[in-house]
TrEMBL record:
GO terms for molecular function: thymidylate synthase (FAD) activity. Binds 4 FAD per tetramer. Each FAD binding site is formed by three monomers. It is an enzyme of class 2 (transferase). Its cofactor is FAD. The keyword Transferase applies. Pathway: Pyrimidine metabolism; dTTP biosynthesis. This is Flavin-dependent thymidylate synthase.
Amino acid sequence: MNDLASAPVLPSTSPVLYPLSDGIGSAALIQYAGDDKMIVNAARVSFGGDSDVPLTGRDEKLIAYLLKHKHGSPFEHNLITFKLVCPIFVDRQLVRHRVGVSKNEISGRYVELQERDYTPTQFRKQAPSNRQASVEDDGSLDQNAAREVWKYASETAFKAYHQLLELGVTREQARGVLPLSLYTESYYTFNVRSLLHFLELRDHEGAQYETRLFARALGELAEPLFPVTFKAWRSLNSH
Ligand SMILES: Cc1cc2nc3c(=O)[nH]c(=O)nc-3n(C[C@H](O)[C@H](O)[C@H](O)COP(=O)(O)OP(=O)(O)OC[C@H]3O[C@@H](n4cnc5c(N)ncnc54)[C@H](O)[C@@H]3O)c2cc1C
């Protein structure tokens, strides 16, 4: 039988991606347990057919079948833990994924928050037809002016934060003046079922660009751990 207790745990040099290309926002693979074979075994145990033989072509077909017919529970006997450093506005979208996702986050009550926030390299315009979406700048947006306003707002907010702390205001209140672009850091643990559901919703053209970059990074980090499942899922979802 597959032994989850001996499932691989990553060495300290775990892979890290920088989805926002600013050297701050990051997604790192911290640990994982389980593999494609465990998914097959979880499905086959219903008729006593689980085994410790290596994955076969039949097993690969079974994984594709399970995904296609939305038999989700065999994909839950595993875990993948990421450390994410992402803007608060991205994190706020991630925490909406409630099922099969565990999270612990840095506390702005405990620690003084670092002066690091995300600045877009390229500002986008409001989409004309979709009230939630954005479109690429067609050249009519003054990128430099937008950058200046962003910088001013960010610097002013951090200055106010430090002034409030110097006045003796508690960290839990002073943080209230900080921007949504402030970087926060968390551990997120998914199982493959919850991760694929997350990717379907957030590595999608309807999702916010920055959130999509993080979703894509999580998929990239997880795919080598469950290659058969990801291959079948990608061919089903054209991802
Ligand atoms: C492009 C996009 C735009 C969005 N815009 C907004 C927005 O403007 N405002 C906003 O508030 N949210 C918004 N969301 C969040 C969205 O409504 C979901 O909360 C989020 O995507 C998580 O999806 P989920 O509920 O399927 O995932 P999970 O919370 O992980 O749930 C997984 C699945 O479990 C089941 N489930 C979970 N909870 C329940 C329940 N209480 N009852 C019954 N079944 C349940 C459902 O089948 C669900 O699909 C947006 C999401 C996306 C992708």
